[in-house]
Amino acid sequence: xxxxxxxxxxxxxxxxxxxxxxxxxxxxxxxxxxxxxxxxxxxxxxxxxxxxxxxxxxxxxxxxxxxxxxxxxxxxxxxxxxxxxxxxxxxxxxxxxxxxxxxxxxxxxxxxxxxxxxxxxxxxxxxxxxxxxxxxxxxxxxxxxxxxxxxxxxxxxxxxxxxxxxxxxxxxxxxxxxxxxxxxxx
Length: 186
Description:
By secondary structure, the chain is an alpha+beta fold. It has helices spanning 2-28, 77-86, 109-143, 151-184, and strands at residues 43-46, 49-52, 57-63, 66-71, 93-95, 100-103.
């Protein structure tokens, strides 16, 4: 039984990582409000190596429609601006030689629908990952039969695994529902 418990605990840990990844991806999908996490994942060519944007400047949101980037080194302004443009996230940076301002335009209805589709795509990837984790865990549980674990214990382990899977799929659905509401709220 302890083997089954360890398999289920490991799967639960992987499920949690999958949910965390989904939350990170959902943060990158902008919902019309300026948020520093919109710029996560953008890499800047700083001093000959690639560095995350947050490592070369501070990012603040003075209001709901504006991001302000204050570079640590003013010489990096053009590299930061170039990185944002190349990221192709639909934002146009403007610099005044001291800071970079990014005005976050309001979302059109069409763009909102595209963002909902993108959110659904991320959700589906997360559900697939959760199902794959369940499949692998169930295979590990079935493999315990060779070690003399009874059919009833294997069946019980698979049932517990399914309940856990259902619980995490529900979390994914709730995350999507919240993100959809956030995106579609004007």
